[in-house]
Amino acid sequence: xxxxxxxxxxxxxxxxxxxxxxxxxxxxxxxxxxxxxxxxxxxxxxxxxxxxxxxxxxxxxxxxxxxxxxxxxxxxxxxxxxxxxxxxxxxxxxxxxxxxxxxxxxxxxxxxxxxxxxxxxxxxxxxxxxxxxxxxxxxxxxxxxxxxxxxxxxxxxxxxxxxxxxxxxxxxxxxxxxxxxxxxxxxxxxxxxxxxxxxxxxxxxxxxxxxxxxxx
Length: 216
What we know:
With 216 residues, the protein is an alpha+beta fold. Helices cover 52% and strands 20% of the residues. It folds into two domains: 9-46; 70-212, no CATH class. Strand 6 (186-189) and strand 7 form a beta hairpin. The radius of gyration is 45 Å and the shape is elongated.
């Protein structure tokens, strides 16, 4: 009778349990590998889809940046051309202005021949590149014009000596070179925007305060 009874001893139970655990672990491992492969395939699919499509807003920004780059290039080219014109023509314009100022100062002296108070003197400044206009006392006045080619400008410094013992008055105006991209330069008052098309009109503007001894 004992030989016919099923063997449910400890050894048999342990072996059966061990087999079941091993099978479950393999199934779990297999399922995990399949899931990982599925996720990897899915991820690759998303990456490929994203890289192949460019959003409209990115295209708009890119196009806007290209336009800005072109505008900056054009602006840089204009600045470079103007700087070249100033280097080549700025000194000549200053020389023409000095000639006009010298001519007008001489004409004013001739109107008051022998009047030492109106004996206007014009002197060139060799080193700085400019000139000085002086009117003697009692209502002494002076104008110093200096050229700055790097800034495409001329600085004009006035000094007026008062007759009542007050401290001298000093005024300053800045003139800048302007014009189109051609070879012709014009001069503009940096403060008011007034444009002087010729050196004759600029000479008149600069000399009146000195000839009269009165600030503008």
